[in-house]
Amino acid sequence: MFDCNQRMLVLLIIINCIIIIIIVVVVVVVVAAVIIIIIIIIIIIIIIIIIIIIIIIIIIIIIIIIIIIIVFIIIVVVVVIIIIIIIIIIIIIIIIIIIIIIIITRIV
User: Fold this and answer.
1) pLDDT digits 0-9 by tens, 16-42
2) CA distances from 55 to 28, 58, 61, 65 (A)
3) Is the dihedral of CA 89, 95, 98, 102 positive or negative?
4) Where do the TM regions start and end (predicted)?
5) Band of the pLDDT at 69, cuts 50, 70, 90?
6) Which secondary-structure segment (H or E) carries 108?
């Protein structure tokens, strides 16, 4: 059988193996945790970038809609002003024609 020194040697080898296994498991768990944390951080950064891009696109669309509405309002106002000016000119011409007709009929 084994003497005392050999038993202690076997016991030390077993303890060393257990310690090495524990260290390897701890290292693997720590590395896995770090990798998972890095992946989660990358996913969060990607989500934040996507949200920022979506917000920028929405702001651009809102600005374009506002510009289109302003241009439409300006066009409508200009068209209405032009129509009012044309109506005023037509009324003035009709009044002038009526005055001329009245003057001509008075003379004759």
Assistant:
1) 999 999 999 999 999 999 999 999 999
2) 40, 5, 10, 15
3) negative
4) 9-29, 35-64, 71-104
5) very high
6) none
User: Nearest 5 degrees, angle CA 78-CA 81-CA 87?
Assistant: 140
Tokens representing 83 are 């129509």
Assess contact for 41 and 33: CB atoms under 8 A: no
pLDDT of residue 107: 74
Tokens of 89: 């000119």
Q: Which stretches within 1-108 are classed as H helix?
A: 4-107
Q: How far is CA 97 from the centre of its chain?
A: 63
CA distance 80 to 56: 36
Name every residue whose Cβ is closer than 8 Å to that of residue 10 and which is 6 or more positions away in sequence: 2
Looking at the whole model, is its pTM more than 0.85?
A: no
d(CA 100, CA 108): 12
Extract long-range pairs of 56-61: CB within 8 Å, 24+ residues apart.
Answer: none
